[in-house]
């Protein structure tokens, strides 16, 4: 069972994020009648975003458990990692600010798990939520940029691309607005573009090319 979890853990979060994004695309682009039924209302952009948040937290928790189990089964070497406090004399601000938490036998394990599994999740959630608040503020000021539910869709897309993908996602949203606006004007004679379709297009581009572009532009330092 442990070996199975260790192997599956690499795919759990990507599968969850891809699944919620595909459902969001189906809801936004194709507007299937199913989504207007009582059962379909469960798959609102808001609920899909909640699933993405829970998925990220669950995945971090699972990885923390698996890391503990790996070290626990590694004999004397693993026991060292599981029974080593973080000294307040080390040059880490976290060691000084959280001495009460790290200065115990699980100190190193907690410190390692925080930096390895939880910090990126926290940053992703924080950045996505700030982005959502900015979208809400923009909607209050200029409502024509949004259709119903598109602020939640933007929040969901920010969760899907994560961190540091969000750094690429934002400029891709602006470029997607320009591209889609030109297409709609030329082929459909529509003057205005809301942000839903640009969110989706920017998410696809970031997900496909994100790792390469992060390397190309030297943004790897943003990874945690």
Tell me briefly what this model is.
The chain is an all-alpha fold. The protein has 8 helices and no strands. The protein has one domain (2-222).
Using brief descriptors, characterize the structure shown.
224 residues; mainly alpha; 8 helices
Structural commentary:
This protein is an all-alpha fold and 224 residues long. It has one domain (2-222). The protein contains 8 helices and no strands. The protein has helices at 2-30, 45-72, 75-82, 93-97, 99-102, 107-141, 150-188, 196-216. The longest helix is centred in the C-terminal third of the chain and has 39 residues, at 150-188. The radius of gyration is 21 Å and the shape is elongated. The model has no long low-confidence stretch (mean pLDDT 89).
Which secondary structure elements does this structure contain, and how are they paired or packed?
Layout: H1 2-30, H2 45-72, H3 75-82, H4 93-97, H5 99-102, H6 107-141, H7 150-188, H8 196-216
Helix pairs in contact: 1-2, 1-7, 2-3, 2-6, 2-7, 6-7, 7-8
Amount of helix: over 70%
- The total count of helices amounts to 8
Give the C-alpha Rg.
21 Å
The tally of domains stands at 1
Shape: elongated
Which regions contain 5 or more consecutive residues with pLDDT less than 50?
none
Residue share in β-strands: under 5%
């Amino acid at each position: 069972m442990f070996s199975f979890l260790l192997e599956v853990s690499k795919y759990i979060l990507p599968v969850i994020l891809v699944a919620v994004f595909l459902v969001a695309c189906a809801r936004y682009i194709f507007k299937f009648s199913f989504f207007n039924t009582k059962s379909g209302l469960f798959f609102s952009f808001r609920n899909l975003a909640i699933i993405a948040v829970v998925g990220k937290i669950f995945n971090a928790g699972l990885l923390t458990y698996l890391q503990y189990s790996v070290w626990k089964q590694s004999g004397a070497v693993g026991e060292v990692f599981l029974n080593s406090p973080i000294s307040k004399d080390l040059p880490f601000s976290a060691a000084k600010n959280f001495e009460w938490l790290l200065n115990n036998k699980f100190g190193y394990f907690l410190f390692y798990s925080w930096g390895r599994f939880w910090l990126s999740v926290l940053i992703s959630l924080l950045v996505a939520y700030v982005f959502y608040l900015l979208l809400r503020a923009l909607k209050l000021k200029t409502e024509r940029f949004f259709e119903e539910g598109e602020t939640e869709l933007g929040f969901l897309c920010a969760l899907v691309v994560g961190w540091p993908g969000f750094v690429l996602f934002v400029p891709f949203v602006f470029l997607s607005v320009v591209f889609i606006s030109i297409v709609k004007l030329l082929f459909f004679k529509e003057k205005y573009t809301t942000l839903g379709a640009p969110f989706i297009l920017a998410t696809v581009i970031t997900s496909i090319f994100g790792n390469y572009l992060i390397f190309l532009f030297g943004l790897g330092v943003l990874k945690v």
